[in-house]
């Protein structure tokens, strides 16, 4: 006799919730709740008529984001047309420049590219290559975690390489200050995205907003599969049901995946459950990311798709002429709490960075500053993912980028977390399990 599909509520339609729902929908009756009017969470399109498109933050995917791309394939999305793909290239206006050697396997492609790089002596480049090789050896030994800064200090890393390589890489990958950043998490990112296969380090930069590129195709797939899409419905609390299962806004479900931002999780969970999760959430540290969009009246061309600065307000300028043909730049400022500025002052400061590269660009004809105050969660030393056993016993699971056991809070971590939650749900009900 065919078993009845479980009825599952997924609460939160960020990338983790979308992933959980998409991996459940063929095997469960899914209802996807979202407090806002659109899906996507901290990576979605926003309105802005003056620009070709706007997101609530400039995002970069890499080839190692296999979970993201698998999900888009599952949804039938034409994602290859929505992203500009480019092999790994590092271009600092005021520092190191290199391109990975595409013809060589990883990690030789990176090491060879560094040795052929510009704006460093052979001795300096050799020193950086040795640092990377020592880090790879360190990773293979599975040693206790420590901060990236403490490891760099032990290696005697020069100021040049701190400013022109390690700091911008760690800020970009982990969005965490060097003195707090987990060396083990950094190694996991490099091992899966740089040291594994050369194509896994390729850049994938969106040419359309992330709602169109990701959230909308996944929501459309869910609806085709019969899922209930429930925007503008903020779930106040998941309650335990006396007949086993849970209740969400009065409706009974066999289980629920809570995929809200961590600072909303405690309020959604039943008051009697999840104390370990609540304690872990209180220990999280959030950091802001500011994105400044600038539009110019005349054509320009940055020297690279992503032009960076060792010393500047922006860490990276993204040349949107290469993406859409529009005379626009998206500037990324990680850890933007370091600078106190109004939205206009942010735009003025980033325009100053642009003038360093393109002195004849003129004044911007439009600007937009977007600061996500809790854009990311610090990947700190010794970070522990809380156990969910107590919740799982009552058919409640969690999903979110902050729960990934190896990765920083990234889009890929969110998607993989959603997939893992879905697998746990399906395993439970495939075994005939019921809520306690």
Automatic annotation (TrEMBL):
<feature type="domain" description="Amine oxidase">
    <location>
        <begin position="16"/>
        <end position="426"/>
    </location>
</feature>
<dbReference type="Pfam" id="PF01593">
    <property type="entry name" value="Amino_oxidase"/>
</dbReference>
<dbReference type="InterPro" id="IPR002937">
    <property type="entry name" value="Amino_oxidase"/>
</dbReference>
<dbReference type="InterPro" id="IPR036188">
    <property type="entry name" value="FAD/NAD-bd_sf"/>
</dbReference>
<dbReference type="GO" id="GO:0016491">
    <property type="term" value="F:oxidoreductase activity"/>
</dbReference>
<dbReference type="InterPro" id="IPR017830">
    <property type="entry name" value="SQase_HpnE"/>
</dbReference>
<protein>
    <submittedName>
        <fullName>Squalene-associated FAD-dependent desaturase</fullName>
    </submittedName>
</protein>
<dbReference type="InterPro" id="IPR050464">
    <property type="entry name" value="Zeta_carotene_desat/Oxidored"/>
</dbReference>
């Amino acid at each position: 006799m065919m078993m009845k599909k479980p009825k599952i509520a997924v609460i939160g339609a960020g990338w983790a919730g979308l992933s959980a729902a998409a991996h459940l929908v063929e095997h469960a009756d899914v209802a996807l709740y979202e407090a806002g009017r659109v899906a996507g969470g901290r990576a979605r399109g926003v309105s802005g008529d003056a620009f070709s498109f706007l997101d609530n933050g400039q995002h970069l995917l890499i080839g190692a984001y296999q979970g993201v791309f698998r999900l888009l394939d599952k949804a039938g999305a034409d994602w290859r047309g929505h992203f500009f793909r480019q092999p790994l290239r590092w271009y600092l206006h005021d520092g190191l420049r290199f391109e990975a050697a595409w013809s060589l396997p990883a990690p030789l492609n990176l090491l060879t590219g560094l040795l052929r790089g510009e704006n460093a002596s052979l001795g300096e480049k050799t020193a950086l290559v040795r640092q990377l090789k020592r880090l790879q050896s360190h990773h293979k030994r599975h040693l206790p975690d420590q901060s990236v800064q403490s490891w760099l200090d032990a290696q005697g890393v020069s100021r040049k390489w701190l400013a022109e390589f390690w700091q911008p890489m760690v800020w970009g990958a982990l969005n965490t200050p060097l003195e707090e950043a987990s060396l083990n998490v950094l190694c996991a990112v490099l091992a899966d995205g740089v040291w594994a296969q050369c194509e896994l380090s390729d850049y994938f930069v969106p040419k359309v907003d992330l709602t169109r590129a990701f959230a909308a195709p996944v929501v459309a797939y869910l609806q085709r599969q019969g899922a209930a899409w429930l925007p503008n419905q903020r779930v106040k609390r998941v309650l335990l049901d006396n007949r086993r299962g849970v209740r969400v806004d009065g409706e009974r479900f066999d289980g629920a995946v809570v995929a809200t931002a961590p600072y909303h999780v405690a309020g959604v969970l039943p008051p009697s459950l999840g104390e370990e999760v609540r304690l872990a959430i209180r220990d999280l540290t959030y950091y802001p990311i500011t994105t400044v969009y600038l539009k110019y009246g005349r054509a320009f061309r940055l020297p690279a798709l992503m032009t960076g600065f060792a010393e500047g307000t922006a860490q990276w300028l993204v040349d949107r002429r290469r993406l859409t043909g529009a005379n626009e730049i998206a500037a990324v400022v990680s850890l933007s709490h370091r600078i106190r500025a109004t939205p206009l002052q942010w735009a003025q400061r980033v325009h100053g960075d642009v003038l360093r590269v393109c002195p004849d660009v003129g004044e911007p004809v439009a600007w937009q500053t977007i600061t996500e105050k809790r854009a990311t969660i610090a990947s700190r030393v010794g970070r522990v993912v809380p156990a969910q056993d107590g919740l799982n016993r009552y058919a409640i699971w969690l999903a979110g980028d902050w729960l990934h056991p190896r990765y920083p809070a990234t889009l890929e971590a969110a998607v993989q977390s959603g997939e893992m939650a879905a697998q746990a749900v399906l395993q439970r009900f495939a075994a005939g399990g019921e809520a306690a």
